[in-house]
Amino acid sequence: MTTKITEDATLKKYPPDLFEPVSQHELSDDFTYRSEQSFWQDAWLGLRKNKAAIVGLCIIILVILLAIFGPFMNNHGYDEQNIARTNLPPKVPVLENISFLGLNGVDSRGVDQYKAKGISEYFWFGTDELGRDLWTRIWQGTRISLYIAFLAATIDLIIGVAYGAVSAFYGGRTDHIMQRIIEVLVGIPGLIVNILLILILKPGIISITIAMVIVGWISMARIVRAQILKLKSYEFVLASRTLGASNQRLIWKHLIPNTLGPIIVATTFTIPGAIFTEALLSFIGLGLQPPTASLGTIVNDSYKLLRIYPHGMIFSSIVISLIMISFNLLGDGLRDAFDPKTRK
Amino acid sequence: MKKILEVKNLSVSFNTYNGEVQAVRNVSFDLYEGETLAIVGESGSGKSVTSKSLLRLNPVETTMLKHGQILYNGKDILTCKEQEIRAIRGAEISMIFQDPMTALNPTMTIGSQIAESIKKHTALRGHQITERVIELLQLVGINEADKRYKQYPHQFSGGMRQRIVIAMALACEPRIIIADEPTTALDVSIQAQILELLKNIQKKMNLSIIFITHDLGVVAKMADRVAVMYAGKIIEIGLVDEIFYHCQHPYTQGLLAAMPNPDIETDTLYAIPGTPPNLLHPPNGDAFAARNKQALKIDFLEEPPMFKVSDTHYAATWLLHEQAPKMIPIHQQLALAECNEREKAPVFDTTNPFLSLKGVKQHFKLDKNTINKAVDGITFDIYKGEIFGLVGESGCGKSTTGRSIIGLNIVTAGDIHIDGRNINEAKTRQEKLAFNRKVQMIFQDPYSSLNPRMKIADIISEGLAIHGVPKSEWKIKIYELLNIVGLTKEYANRYPHELSGGQRQRIGIARALAVEPELIIADEPISALDVSIQAQIVNLLKKLQKERGLTYLFIAHDLSMVKYISNRIGVMHRGKIVELAESQELYDHPIHPYTKALLSAIPLPDPKLERERQRIIFNEVEYNATNRESESFTEVRPGHFVMLTEEELTQYHQAISESILQ
Does pLDDT of A24 surpass 70? Predict the structure, then answer.
């Protein structure tokens, strides 16, 4: 036997009072009292602790505010053309004195276009090839892009979650038929559906939204269905059923809350996806018609002049990137905030 | 005896998100040739981590080896090269895992899986390997091995798969086998077969086995020596008889006392209070002190060293110090107390059963031609205030029966009456709700039975919300229920993942009690819990039954616990109840061959008894070959019903009359 026995410890003399039995102390639970909060309060607290998500949220709010008020911050209209001031580089008061920022109205060839064309106004983001003010156009475009994105995401969310939940929850034949319908829809390439639809309807915001929604909800429906199929057999759902819960209660109180994580992640992908799809459709000429601006159309218009006048492309891309990144950050934060397990 | 493996002062920690978890703390033991060393402990006690360290199988990224040595053949396993450890794995020391369903690769034939390590470690090639594989399969008791070695895992049953896993472990004639809960996932009768197989093989090959388990019955059956682990330490180690009959550490004593003893009628089981400590911050002194009713002051200050009880028996408790006061061991205290209070058998109103099943069938259509007869015509009554135990192996239909009673399935045929009313008649939502108030259920898995996104208060109050209790009354009711199940009201604001398994099960009970039911269906409520927690939950269930006059349908596969808690027991086999009697009667005079086999397969926590006991084997093929058409449910003794054919019945009567004549 090599179990190490410290001879001294077993034989050592201790003060005898150490060997008195301890008075029967209460079983103390070693946790601190926590104030009562609802699920939503908990989620909000969780979100507030996540710095990245808060940064994302702030950027989103800022972008939305600019999208609403930006176009009114100068007195140029988004469709106001003027051949005399085409392709002006950006020029901002005060910042024009810091040369490396490139906001001093000097183009890539080193010519101050404002002086050359004799223009005394400031165009913060410059102008495009038709002399329209890009600041106004970009925020006007952001407004429309966000509008399309939110609308598409919301409709996706509603249809997708409802379809997936119903399909998985009722199962059997209902599920069978609903899944076959999805398979048919998936079989047709989304772009073709979009093109056909826009050929029938007039190109515009509403028809683009409808075109995106028609196939967009499918991935959401599949994610929700898979989650609910798994959750349905969990014992907490059975327990609720034995208590006499109705189907609505099961779906809303038990199944959907436990599916929130994947739903949020899917939605944060839908929003940038919708902005991209809109840009793509506008790019191939099926989207918004001029003079209406969206982030997609601005990128499309200005990429041809990228070599000489990069400013149009740069500013619109920065706005798109900011929207994407901040939605992803916020989405991650929301997913964690709604999951009690990730909270301390 | 020759020493084959030596573990010295092993300490292993894991790096986790929350900090360092000290899973194994300063563990030392030896393994001798040809012996079985059982390592016993609750989940999280470090027994699996210890055994995995012997083969260096713990995840490399997170494991921190604090210090220690594992000497095998003079080589330190912990520091040797990766190549050297690979030569040891499988060839010298091999492992049997817990779940045979995931331990085999479903895309490989079992033959090629067994052959893998033979190819790696031996010089055998070609048909020699095949011969060796067949030989191994025969050794572990698989018939027609020469044909079956080409089959895939899904073509074998759970017990057969565990045999194959054992064959894989034996392939290169290792000297040590580490069996990590090898029978936990199996039914009792299969468990008995696998344990016997391991014992036989051990004798034939002079193997040393390290047997990890939490089941003291299995330990009594298998072990030569036992090491008891608690909070990452070995707190007591000794020969099996020394541990079972002369244990010194209060934790070992508590564990033994928490097992229901079939010979003593007791009112409450001994339950170790509280839960094991969090190994993120191991407590000072004796880790068990906080749960120990006999704790001394020194237990909280200084860690007890290993005291020598005999040459083979060591225990780490200050009670063995010469200055310590003499205390009566917990399990003996209990035995003394129990002799006094023995309850009279309660009397039930047998004319008006609370729950009555008549010819209930529950068939599931799998596809066009196959029907799964999960429950196939069962008839029984449960009286008001009674605890009725339903036992059987997995897949016998006992859980399905419970779910049919509570209305989760719509029965295929038959009638279920609750409190005199047929449940099929409840059509409107109001009637259904009224029925749901009467019957409630407690579930098996404390981890999946609570919604992880709801707070405890919301979980408990769900029944109140469904049954239209005004919101103003909820709070008082929730606190009251938490108090009833032995939790403080602070728990109301927690989420399920912050609670331990036993606490979650208490919440499950509180949820069921919220609607004040009269009948509770407990579907294996304790099988997922640790031994010391099981006793707490069983005591709680019994206490509630007494205080509130509840009726229970207690579904379980652990016959000893069912016998302890139930008034009457029904034994289910293949969707039918084959025997039904009062629990003592069933235990003393089992008649049906299946019941006999089931009773004899349960390992008892008594090594002397285990050595003498002969297992009765239930021959399924022979049983089915007899003419089962004529079988009927006959009352052979007062209140004792058995499913027997006419032939068997006459045989039984003959046997009785013969024994009277003699």
Answer: no
Rounded to the nearest 10 degrees, the angle between the axes of helix B127-139 and helix B158-170 is 130
Chain A partners within 8 Å of B459 (Cβ): 236
**Measuring CA to CA, which residue among B259, B227, B189, B192 is closest to residue B30?**
B227
Cα(A182)–Cα(A186) distance, rounded to whole angstroms?
Answer: 6
Task: State residue A42's pLDDT score.
Answer: 81
Mean pLDDT of B247-271: 78
Q: Please enumerate in sequence order all residues whose Cβ is within 8 A of that of A329, keeping only pairs 6 or more positions apart, or say none.
A: A52, A53, A55, A56
State how far Cα A188 lies from the chain centre: 26
Query: What mean pLDDT is predicted for residues B119-136?
Result: 88
Q: Which fold has domain B382-581?
A: Rossmann fold (3.40.50)
Q: Write out the two tokens for A187.
A: 């079989």
| pLDDT averaged over every residue in chain A | 81
Give B380-436 as a DSSP string. Answer: EEE-TT-EEEEE--TTSSHHHHHHHHTTSS--SEEEEEETTEEGGG--SHHHHHHHH
The domain made up of A42-77+138-342 has a fold known as MetI-like fold (1.10.3720)
Q: Do B490 and A29 touch (CB under 8 A)?
A: yes
Check residue A3 and give its pLDDT. Answer: 42
Q: Is some CB atom of chain A closer than 8 A to the CB atom of B440?
A: yes
B601-632: b (≥16 Cβ within 10 Å) or e: bbbbbbbeebeeeebbebeeeebeeeeeeebe
Residue count of chain B, please give it: 662
Closest CA to A124 of A91, A78, A87: A91
With CA atoms as reference, report the closest residue to A222 among A163, A170, A298.
A163
CB contacts of A262 in chain B (<8 Å) are: none
Q: Where are the domains of chain A?
A: 42-77+138-342
| Res. B266: pLDDT tops 80 | no
pLDDT digits (tens, 9 = 90+) for A120-133: 777 778 777 777 88
Do domains B3-243+298-320 and B382-581 share one topology? The answer is: yes
Q: Is B167 exposed, middle or buried (0-12, 13-18, 19+ CB in 10 A)?
A: buried
The helix/strand/coil state of B439 is strand
Instruction: Give the DSSP letter of residue B616.
Output: P
Partner residue opposite A5 with nearest CB, options B30, B308, B494? B308
- Domain residue limits, chain B: 3-243+298-320, 382-581, 630-662
Could you say which of B295, B437, B440 has the minimum Cβ distance to residue A22? B295
- Closest by Cα among A254, A146, A129 to A209: A146
A–B interface: beta-carbon pairs under 8 A? 156
| For residues B192-216, average pLDDT | 89
Identity of the residue in A34, A242, A249 whose CB atom sits nearest the CB atom of B408: A242
Say if the Cβ atoms of A21 and B305 lie within 8 Å: no
Distance (Å, whole) CA B251 – CA B330 = 9
| Surface of B (203-242) touching A: CB under 8 A | 237
Q: Residues of B with CB below 8 A from A11's CB?
A: 322
CATH number of B3-243+298-320: 3.40.50.300
Helix, strand, or coil here: B549?
A: coil
d(CA B585, CA B89): 50
Of A3, A24, A37, the CB nearest to B29: A3
Distance of alpha carbon B215 from alpha carbon B220, whole angstroms: 9
Asked if A236 lies within 8 A of B448 by C-beta distance, the reply is yes
Q: Are A15 and B299 in contact (CB under 8 A)?
A: no
Calpha distance A146→A144 (Å, rounded): 5
Helices (H), B206-235: 216-222
Tokens of A98: 């810091």
Q: What pLDDT is attached to residue A344?
A: 52
Q: What is the value of ipTM here, to two decimals?
A: 0.79
Min Cα distance B10 → chain A (Å) is 11
